[in-house]
Design brief:
The protein has about 400 residues and is α/β, with parallel strands linked by helices. It contains 14 helices and twelve strands. Helix 1 packs antiparallel against helix 10, helix 4 runs parallel beside helix 5 and helix 11 crosses helix 14. It binds pyridoxal-5'-phosphate.
Length: about 400
Amino acid sequence: MNPQAIYYFDNNATTRVAPEVVEAMIPYLRDLWGNPSSVYGFGKQLAKPLEAAREKVAALINAEPREIIFTSGGTESINSAIHSALATQPQKRHILTTAVEHSATIKFCAHLTKMGFEVTLLPVESDGSLDIPLLEKSIRPDTAIVSVMWANNETGVLFPIEEIAAICRGKKVLFHTDAVQAPGKLKIDVADLGVDLLSLSAHKLHGPKGVGLLYVKRGVKYQAHVIGGGQEQGRRGGTENVASIVGFGLAGELAMAHLRDETALIRALRDKMENGILKSVPGAVLNGARDARLPNTSNISFEGIEAEGILLLLDELGICASSGSACTSGSLDPSHVLLAMGCSTARARGSVRFSLGIYNTEADVDFLLKHLPPIIAKLRGHSHSGKKSQSKTVTA
Ligand SMILES: *Cc1c(COP(=O)(O)O)cnc(C)c1O
């Protein structure tokens, strides 16, 4: 397979595995394929790289290695955090979260509702921000856990995790944050944040897919969600995904080492892209707070047209972007995040997320800025060449 050149603006959906990470993983796929739980040396030797990776990802979030549970990714970590809070506090049956969480939280909570638990989804303001006094008031004596994402994957909007963690501490309620969008973009320090539980996923930080972690603060009771062998000190059954865990460790190390310089570069590129789009495309508006936002994300609505048409025409040029979250694109549902922010269905349907990463270049942004305005004009029925096209919408 020889893929055409791509212009990748979908780093919040997944990221390219760093070439160094691929290299580091290969020996564990090709030669060192033993089971780390074995009694013989060929398998047992893998405990060392496994623990080295644990130290690296622990360092990424300033945790202790024993506070890290390796999982199959962000979704499993989030499900497990909420599950554990309920299982270890059977008298508490209420979960407090927000209306703009990733589906790993929202849909798991919907499932829990069917199982008889109570869930409160906090609303957000029109800029995507949370009403913190309302959050505080919504914590009940039977609240088992508060789960609030750090950075929104669709808009990039940041929530004040430190402040929310302090409120939860004051009320003696467990606090989990979905920090999947944070690494490589924000400095993560679980001690400063004051969280009890935190979820990460390797493939959002140039690691492989299918591996992640759940941080469980020392002293916080934990009940396994995935039950089987005694791996991860009995906290997550299943033979360790050694190659991916090694890749995750290196990806974490790289993310930490390059955080400062890379963030500045990505922010500069993002701002150039965003300002360029907002200036050159009439009826383009930014969704979400401008300042309290990830440095790599722009969510922009294009008045009068649907994102699907835009994405299809961009795709013809090799430009990858998305509408809403990857899990819901492909369906016609407008983004639950934008609807929660009070956007009209039309505005939500006309929104495109552009998310940059360390491999984006000035040339990528220039290519997008050259091709996007005529695409929008074409979809609106007035092509740049002056010819009127027949229809306002494009069908797939
Ligand atoms: C991608 C993502 C997840 C899910 O992680 P997976 O590893 O794909 O399961 C959860 N939360 C947020 C904010 C994400 O961006």
